[in-house]
Amino acid sequence: MVIFDSVKKEKVKFEPIRDKEVRMYVCGPTVYDDAHLGHARSAIAFDLLRRTLKALGYKVTFARNFTDIDDKIIKKSLETGQPIEAITKKYTERYLDDMHALGVLDADISPRATTSLNAIIEMVSKIMDNGCAYQSEDGTVWFDTSKDPEYCSLSHRCGDEEETQARIEHEEGKRHPRDFALWKACKEEDVCYDSPFGRGRPGWHIECSAMIDSYLAYKDEEYAIDIHGGGADLFFPHHENEAAQTRCATHQKLAKYWMHNGFVNINGEKMSKSLGNSFFVKDALKSYDGEILRYYLIGTHYRANFNFNEEDLLSSKKRLDKIYRLKKRIYGAKKTEADKNFQKEVLDALADDLNISKALAAVDEMTARANEYLDTNPKDKAFKQKTMANIEWVNEVMGFGGKDAYRYFQLGMSDEEIAHINELIEARNVAKKAKDFETADAIRAELTDMGIQLMDTPQGTVWEKAE
After folding, report:
1. Does 167 lie in the same domain as 89?
2. Do residues 188 and 329 share a domain?
3. Are residues 389 and 451 both part of a single domain?
4. Secondary structure of residue 231 in the 3-state scheme
5. What is the pLDDT, as a whole number, of residue 266?
6. Do residues 297 and 36 lie in contact, with contact meaning Cβ atoms separated by under 8 Å?
7. What confidence score (pLDDT) does residue 164 get?
8. Distance (Å, rounded) from C-alpha 219 to C-alpha 205?
9. pTM of the model
10. Cα-flanking dihedrals φ and ψ of residue 359, to 5°?
11. Which of 266, 293, 310 is the last residue of a domain?
12. Omega of the bond prior to 237 within 30 degrees of 0, cis?
């Protein structure tokens, strides 16, 4: 496999630390609010990478953290009067619900800052013992960037003094502008924990380094893990600081490869809460099924910036519809074994730094070829079974195409509408069984007037809403 390494700024051959094994860590959300499209984009990108690696035969251990100690969480608690634990529990569960709707697989390891305090305190202690940290008068422990000669070797962005200064201008007690807090001393109305260096709480950057070291890292290798991922906005300073902490604490390089996904724009404008255009996933899910959103978000290469607009989303849905129309055409077929040539074509594309355009083109071509063949060979059972296996394999590797074909075309209808239609279909079935064909035909006509198309199959009566 070939991937784009953010540090080298080029595609490189992926060679894991240990043969056929991958340890991968992706920065997760700070759980003080609902997940937005930026969270979704990152989660889907690295979900695709994880699925691809598994399809290529790697044993993948995937970790994604939850930041549940943070200034924003404390602020929300003070503003709302809700306990911090209630806030973080609610938004962690909402994040997971949203990701499940988008077809994102659960992480193998999901550490939280509050359950990793011992590991965090231990790493801060090591950094202090190794002479790479100091404590200011108020008790805050700072990472001393001057003691790490490799600081900024990842992003090469330390020359960006304007951004750096804007980030640190409010912080007192540090020796150097780029130093950052490992442990924040207690203040009024703060969340505090005991530690050997006084009561306080972790800085943001330290939790990821400590979690990787505690839950995922190789202890006897040059690199702690194979791949570290996240949004492009995290590369500096967050990932730069993580790497520095690990070097100074364990004398390891944090990750062999660094990967970052692009930004999300909404109608051409960069998504930002300060601009008021942070599009929550929960709101998008009110109008569109999660699989349709996934297919749309996955369709732009992960490193490119993504411009979200509904016109493109609807065009993307029409492309996904074609897969389900084929699946409907072979409805009831039991999958056998997927076509090896088709699998190779898709995997060759994904193995090229997740070349999604080429992979989706291969799926489109498979769909078109299958429809063309079925036009002249509509009863070829073996072909239908292989085609079903192809679609199920696509779902396994890319995360779409797994729904019931008829249920897919019912998306957007309310539970009440679906229940009413199913009741009418059941009444029709009863009438047919009693040979009351006049009633059965009348019910079918009623459904047709409602825009519902019926199909009687060996598996029973199925339906969809006519477009």
Report:
1. yes
2. no
3. no
4. strand
5. 85
6. no
7. 46
8. 20
9. 0.91
10. -65, -45
11. 266
12. yes
How does pLDDT run across 26-53, given as a tens digit for each residue?
A: 999 999 999 999 999 999 999 999 999 9
d(CA 399, CA 353): 17
Q: 198: which 2 tokens?
A: 């006084």
Q: How many CA atoms lie within 13 A of 427 on its CB side?
A: 14
Locate 41 and state its tokens: 């984009």
Record the tokens describing residue 409, joined without a space. Answer: 């075309």
List beta partners, residue 280. 36
Integer Cα distance of 22 and 56 in angstroms: 11
Q: Which residue ranges in the chain fall short of pLDDT 50? A: 161-169
Instruction: State the Cα–Cα distance between residues 43 and 39, nearest whole angstrom.
Output: 6
User: What pLDDT shows up at residue 113?
Assistant: 96
Instruction: Give the containing element (helix H, strand E) for 31.
Output: none
Among 20, 21, 25, smallest CA distance to 257 is for: 25
Instruction: Please give the residue range of the domain that contains residue 40.
Output: 9-266
pLDDT at 82: 94
pLDDT computed for residue 165 by the predictor: 45
- What is the reported pLDDT for 14? 98
User: Do residues 11 and 75 touch, judged by C-beta distance below 8 A?
Assistant: no
User: How many CB atoms lie under 10 A from the CB of residue 232?
Assistant: 14
CB 234 within 8 A of CB 260: yes
Please tell me the predicted confidence (pLDDT) of residue 467.
62
